[in-house]
Amino acid sequence: MKPQFIALIILGAPALMFGMSGVRAYQLAKEGEVPEDFRDLNCDGKITYAEWLRGGIDFRLRPSTLVPGCQEIYMVKTPESSFVVRCEAEPKCRLAPDLKR
Q1: 82-92: per-residue pLDDT in tens?
Q2: Positive or negative, the Cα torsion across 51, 53, 57, 61?
Q3: Nearest to residue 90, comparing CAs of 41, 33, 43?
Q4: What's the pTM?
Q5: What average pLDDT does the segment 12-23 reach?
Q6: CA distance linking residue 37 with residue 12, whole number of Å
Q7: Is 34 exposed, middle or buried (0-12, 13-18, 19+ CB in 10 A)?
Q8: How far apart are CA 51 and CA 71, in angstroms?
Q9: What is the side-by-side order of every strand in the sheet holding 71-75?
Q10: Three-state SS for 1?
Q11: What burial class does residue 26 get, using C-beta atoms within 10 Å of its C-beta: 0-12 exposed, 13-18 middle, 19+ buried?
């Protein structure tokens, strides 16, 4: 075997796997439970790509116990604590730890 072919296999296989995992992460995030408008996880008014991905993969939505009539976004790994509270009325986005104080 030629050294160029071996180098292509050594460098190309991990790059191909990394690309395929990125495509799969995008698919999972697109099918996520949290609507795309609610994926601002730090309530700064901007949805970054990382927030969009994490909001679709790691988070879920449920009715709020902290603020009646609103929705809580909680992390799948820790469902007992909410992360962000989203409401129709102002303020539309609130961090849940700030509400518990």
Answers
A1: 889 999 888 88
A2: positive
A3: 43
A4: 0.77
A5: 96
A6: 37
A7: buried
A8: 18
A9: 59-63, 71-75, 82-86, 93-95
A10: coil
A11: middle
